[in-house]
Amino acid sequence: MVRYVYDFRDGDRAMADLLGGKGANLAEMTRLGLPVPPGFTVTTEACRAFLATGAEPDGMAEEVSRHLSALEAATGRLLGQSDDPLLVSVRSGARFSMPGMMETVLDIGLTDASVPGLAKVSGNERFAWDCYRRLIQMFGSTVLGVDPALFDQALSVCGMTREAPDDLRADACGLARLVETYKQLVRDATGRDFPQSPTEQLRLAVLAVFRSWNAERARLYRRREHIPDDLGTAVTVQRMVFGNLGADSGSGVAFTRDPATGQPGLYGDYLPDAQGEDVVSGIRDTVSLAELERLDPRSYRQLRDHAQTLERHYRDLCDIEFTIERGTLWMLQTRVGKRTAEAAFAIAAELVGEGLVTADEGLLRVDGDQLGRLMFPRFDTRAAGPEIAHGVPASPGAAAGAVVFDSPTAVRRAADGERVVLVREETTPDDLPGMVAARAVLTGRGGKTSHAAVVARGMGRVCVCGAQDITVDGEARRFTTRAGTVVEEGTVVSVDGSTGAVYAGAVPLVASATMRYLECGEQADCLVAAVARALEHADAVRRLEVRANADTAEDAARARRFGAQGIGLCRTEHMFLGERRTLVEEMILARTEADRDRALAVLLPLQRKDFTDILRAMDGLPVTVRLLDPPLHEFLPERTELAVRVASAEAAGGPPDAHDVELLAAVNRMHEDNPMLGLRGVRLGIVVPGLVAMQVRAVAEAVAERVREGGSPRAEIMVPLVGSVEELRLARAEVTRVLAEVGKETGVPLDCPVGTMIELPRAALTAGRIAEEAEFFSFGTNDLTQTTWGFSRDDVEAAFFSAYLDKGVFAASPFETLDREGVGRLVRIAVAEGRAVRPRLQTGVCGEHGGDPESVHFFHRVGLDYVSCSPFRVPVARLEAGRAAL
Ligand code: ADP
Ligand code: MG
Ligand code: MG
After folding, report:
1. Element holding 596 (H helix, E strand)
2. Within 10 A of 769 (CB to CB), how many other CB atoms are there?
3. Quick one: which residues bind Mg(2+) (predicted)?
4. Given this model, what pLDDT does residue 166 score?
5. Which of 30, 91, 455 to mutate to test the pocket of ligand 1 (most atoms within 8 A of CB)?
6. Would you call 463 a catalytic residue per the annotation?
7. Percent of the chain scored above 90 by pLDDT?
8. By alpha-carbon position, which residue is closest to atom 18 of ligand 1?
């Protein structure tokens, strides 16, 4: 028999797949003996069954009613019992936290019949009506599908708004009238009465929470966070406790330490006389926990102790939702909390320092994306004008952009390539698309635990919230600062999520402290020291080497400072651009061998100098030089442009420029409809005489020069786009011939390894043959992805990738994160078959994927020797290679 319902006492945190994070952690807190209102959780399995069939699975309803009976017995009251009703909350909770994206309904069980009973036992009539109007509002909108705006309108007709705390002043009579209005609203919108059966309310709410798994915003959030769509949500049913029972009650959110900086010490927001959602929604301004300590020292101390228990137990930063009912503290939720990149490193270092977690675990608590964020530049405050506003620094980073006042506008303008800053009085889950599109989020209300702050931190978006010195007028599309400055839509502002400052205009940027450390080893503060510890540990445990893709001596030097252990890809085509273009043109246009040799002879010393400089910067470390790869016409002027130039000269009556005519003829001759699959890579070397020889000679002479200078150059020659061993054999013969020739001329023995890129499926599938001729394989995963999928990267990304991502064909672009199933399989095959033939074959990857965290883990598992990525990704790859090894 499948079991669909678990009491809190029967679960634990390991059961998050089945009970969702919320249910599993409520069970864990119950086990720890913390004060958790009793309840039970309906499993994600039941949800999946319901979503698949549209009906509750067999037996679920009976189990729910059995657990409800047990809850009723334990509390000594029946759900909705008229003289003293048991009320429950019905809460969503998935395996992975999706803050505010699904539904939760509070105060289930209240009916016309039991409101008086609740009023009597609580001795607070106003409270009873307040619960009832909250129930009808939440149930009406989430379960019955009534437009929430209708309830808000009704509120304001009664002189109350959701935003203003005026409803606190509404008396019982006013609230009772509001309930009547709400009930009429429900009747008008749905054609039926608000359900008066407590158990029917419960059943409908549970199913509505199941359905909320597929709500539009929940789907969008999952896509962004790469959470699978088929997990489903659990539903937790829990006895209500009341924070809206007067001044000695309230609700709050706390972190066991500061989620923005990682600093130890209880941190959070509290709202007296409030129920649940009021806190996170930013509807009313919260007070600090220091204020709670003043209001209710006993509850505060308990909360602090429980926080410490949780942090010790989970051995990590936890966030907590709590409610105080007439001086009694109740714990309503906990989980390992989302945090900024800064806090992640700081907390990991501190917990390792305290001996609470091992250095390995500490490394697993941070990741490459977070490190990447710390490398972003900061505002140069000396160059900034005065602050126009200041709020809570909720999610760090520096971003400038044009202000917009609603989510659709943010999405639209960002799609047009504009940088925007989303400004809202407060955000709601419906603002998610705008938050995704914006560079920064600025809100007028709410603290570090508000919706805007939590979501922004989760996705690494810059966020300043609760800037109380601005007045946001969304309708008029402007905000006003305390000084009276009016900032209209489209005005550029700069938002500093690390300090909370907002400046007018775009403030210039400077390197971050982490970047300065990476560049020159300066350990300015404890955050940077924490980053340094993590990288050192990663270096100590990783098996993968990390190299860089670099084509110039400066890039090579920077990469080396960032910890690169060599160059995995030195693209020679960049040495053919700029002023040298005309020389390349001459070589391409040469009619005779002598002409071509002359052109190549001019290029030779220039390339040699480039290689000498690079080898010097990477002295003692391998430098993998790739022979010229792109089609030659990329070095010639654009075809249409040339044709127009020639034609207009003719139209003007004069003879066109002779050189232009010659060029046009060459361009026409070399034109390819599909150059990506045309004359490029090794094919060029085979077809264009002298090209390979010139490049190899430049490398070889540079090596000889470096040896004469007393250096230890370690050049490797790499042949691109090989599909068959025959191609490689031809190219290699030429390479070896030139190496020997230069060796003899210079007297320096030249034994540069010769290898190939694996970037065609045929190369991967015949890797055993190719390994006969290759001393190393370097997977060019950009081309390998293009050729495996048949995707032209330059065309498909704009054309239809967003549709593919929407429809879930893949979770991430295969050009960003390696497609393990297809492209990855080719990599596995090639490594295995290559090594079978040549056991000491060196293997690496030099596509963009070399710096992508998820892909790095894959390359580690496949057993590659190194990854190579752009210099700025080197620290990220080091960190991830370390994490992959644990
Ligand atoms: P979310 O996943 O969006 O945080 P929750 O299920 O945590 O939704 O519910 C939202 C709020 O409702 C919580 O912050 C909590 O304060 C309140 N709440 C939930 N269950 C109860 C309960 N049994 N008693 C009192 N308040 C509750
Ligand atoms: Mg919650
Ligand atoms: Mg390639």
Report:
1. helix 593-617
2. 18
3. 759, 783
4. 47
5. 91
6. no
7. 72
8. 276
Bind-site residues for Mg(2+): 759, 783
Neighbour tally for 100: CB within 10 Å: 22
Domains plus CATH for the chain? Answer: 69-239 (1.20.80.30), 250-336 (3.30.470.20), 376-510 (3.50.30.10), 542-631+672-884 (3.20.20.60)
Is there a contact between 461 and 438 (Cβ–Cβ < 8 Å)?
Answer: yes
Task: Give the number of whichever ligand sits closest to the CA of residue 237.
Answer: 1
For ligand 1, atom 9, which residue shows the shortest CA distance?
A: 104
- Residue 79 DSSP one-character state: B
Distance from residue 731's CA to the centre of ligand 1 (Å): 68
Distance CA 779, CA 831 (A): 10
Reported ipTM: the value is 0.95
How many whole angstroms separate alpha carbon 57 and alpha carbon 593? 80
What whole-number distance in Å separates Cα of residue 171 and Cα of residue 233? 38
> Do residues 366 and 344 touch, judged by C-beta distance below 8 A?
yes
Q: 257 forms bridges with which residues in the sheet?
A: 264
Please compute the mean of the pLDDT values over residues 447-458 and round it to a whole number: 79
Both tokens of residue 630? 């792109």
375 versus 577: the higher-pLDDT residue is 375
Residue bearing tokens 């000491």: 840
Give the pLDDT of residue 164.
44
106 lines ligand 1 (CB under 6 A): yes
Q: Kindly identify the ligand whose nearest atom is closest to the C-alpha of 573.
A: 3
Among the listed residues 215, 195, 227, the one whose alpha carbon sits nearest the alpha carbon of residue 17: 227
How far, in Å, from the CA of 164 to the mean position of ligand 1?
A: 21
Ligand 1 atom 26 nearest Cα: 276
Question: CA 20 to CA 97: how far, in whole Å?
Answer: 8
Ligand 1 near 568 CB (within 6 A): no
pLDDT of residue 377: 84
The response to whether residue 321 sits with its C-beta less than 6 Å from ligand 1 reads: yes
CA–CA dist 526, 533 (Å, integer): 10
* Active-site residue, selected from the candidate residues 67, 306, 390, 451: 451
Say how many residues make up the chain.
886
Ligand nearest to the backbone CA of 785:
3
Q: Which of 19, 321, 325 maximizes ligand 1 atoms within 8 Å of its Cβ, making it the mutation to test the pocket?
A: 321
Ligand 3 geometric centre to CA of 792 (Å): 12
249 lines ligand 1 (CB under 6 A): no
Q: Distance, CA 687 to ligand 1 centroid (Å)?
A: 71
Q: Is 451 marked active-site?
A: yes
pLDDT digits (tens, 9 = 90+) for 479-518: 999 888 999 999 999 999 988 999 999 999 888 999 999 9
Contact 23, 93 (CB under 8 A): yes
Q: Beta 398-404 vs 492-496: how paired, if at all?
A: antiparallel
Residue 749: Cβ-neighbour burial (10 angstroms; 0-12, 13-18, 19+): exposed
